Every structure is written in C-alpha cells, then in structure tokens.
Amino acid sequence: MAAIRKSFYLTRLALLAIAGLLAVVLVQPALSRGAAEEARLVPPPAVDLPAGTASSAVAVFAGGCFWGVQGVFQHVEGVLGAVSGYAGGAASTAQYRLIGSGLTGHAEAVQVRYDPRRVSYGQLLQVYFSVAHDPTQLNRQGPDRGTQYRSTIFPADAEQARVAQAYIAQLDRAKAFPAAIVTTLEPGRTFYPAEDYHQDFLERHPDHGYIAYYDLPKLAALKQLFPKLYRDKAVLVGNPGR
User: Fold this and answer.
1) Which of 76, 149, 186, 217 could link 144 by a cystine bridge, Cβ 3.0 to 4.6 Å?
2) 65 is catalytic
3) Is 191 helix (H, G, I), strand (E, B) or coil?
4) What distances in angstroms separate CA 150 from CA 2, 20, 42, 73, 179, one per listed residue?
C-alpha cells in the first residue's frame, strides 16, 4: 500500500510539473510582463488592529493558486506558519480533485498564523494586495480561471472584516489600481488544509515551470517592496517558526 501511495504521489507531481510547464509555454507569448512587474506598493491601511498581548492570531486569504500565496507569506517576518487549503465550501468537497470544477464554493486559500506583536493584520493585508496577487482580476489569476481562484478574504471575526473592508474602500478611493478591486469578504467560513503534496510547494519545487514564472517573482517583489518585513528563510509547514 505504501508503494502504491508513493507511486500515486510521484505520478501526480509529474503531472503538476507538466501542467506548469505547459502553462508557461502557452501563456508566456501573450504576456509582456512578468509577475514581479505587476506587483505594486499600495499605501498602508489607515485602519488596523491593535497589537494587543496575544502571541498568535490567524488570517485567511485567497488570491489564485495557493502555491504562490503560501510562499509569499512564509517569507514575511512575524508569520509563524502558512498552510495551503480550501475555504468557502463544505468539508466533504475540500479536496483538490473536486474544487477544480469551480462548483464546490471553495477557493484555494492560505491560512496565515502570525504574531500580532511583530506584524499586524493590516501589514498582512498590504502584502496581500501589493505582492501576493492582483485584486482586480475577477475569478482568475494569471492563467488560472474559475471561482476557486477568486480574490477573497475570509475574516476570522468582525474586527478583521471591519479592517479589511475599510482598506478595500481606501485603496479604491486612492485609485491604487488601474481597475476596481473585486476582492470579496466571506466571514464565517471554515478553512480546510490541502493535501500534503501542496504544502511548501514553492520551497520544495523552485524549478517547477509555474513556480519559476509566476511565483518566484512575487518573492523578489516582497523583498524589494517590503525589506523590513522580508525574511530570507521560509517558515515551513513541517517546521513552524517562532
């Protein structure tokens, strides 16, 4: 049985690698700029949550393929852990083979556990909007299409929802992007961790075609735009940081 599971894992990984390479080959001619050039430093939120005394808090963000979103937050100072997963749908459909249909209600999401004394919820939002994805793309990111790739914030409570909503309004008023922000808020949703082979994918497969073209530039942008927040060593799922 162990051999069968390993064979399945290797076959799935190979298929994912082929898909990533095909995405680069098919999409690259139509793109004039890479992901790093699409990143932009947006203003910090005027409204934020106070640091308080708690040593840990949780935020959940969705913005396209979770490989890159997870990879970005794993390199943010003050983040204790980032897990790829699904949010927005039922527990019974929180499976990669099902969410690809776009009919489960789930979005590929990342649960970020952070120390609010070292990095604020507002700073995480600023990274999310500046680097992790393009919040003006409706139900898509780059070559990925479908509601499972939507731009969505899953607030943990009313205070997170208040700060996120105020920030979206602030960025729209400031015309921080050339188009309106389509990011939605979906409170009260449960987060479900994704399969093991999706975790730490950027760190484990930096040469994967999709990662190299779409996600590594996000890390470069994070380092350039947020030098004080950037951490060189990623905090991995199997080795949570402090």
Assistant:
1) 149
2) yes
3) strand
4) 36, 19, 20, 18, 16
Q: Looking at the chain, list the stretches that DSSP marks H as alpha helix, in order from N- to C-terminal side.
A: 2-27, 35-38, 66-73, 96-99, 121-127, 158-173, 201-204, 209-210, 216-225
Give domain 2-225's CATH number out of 1.20.120.1730, 3.30.1060.10, 3.40.50.2300, 2.60.40.10: 3.30.1060.10
Strands (E), 24-176: 57-63, 79-87, 107-114, 140-141, 144-145, 151-154
**pLDDT per residue as tens digits for the range 104-151:** 999 999 999 999 999 999 999 999 999 999 999 999 999 999 999 999
Q: How many whole angstroms separate alpha carbon 19 and alpha carbon 14?
A: 9
Q: Which of 16, 49, 60, 65 is catalytic?
A: 65
* pLDDT tens digits, one per residue of 139-162: 999 999 999 999 999 999 999 999
Picking from 121, 135, 97, 154, the residue whose alpha carbon sits closest to that of residue 47 is 121
Q: What is the torsional sign of CA 121, 78, 136, 178?
A: positive
Count of CB atoms situated within 10 Å of the CB of 75: 24
Domain ranges of the chain: 2-225
Q: Evaluate whether 222 touches 75 at the Cβ level (below 8 Å).
A: yes
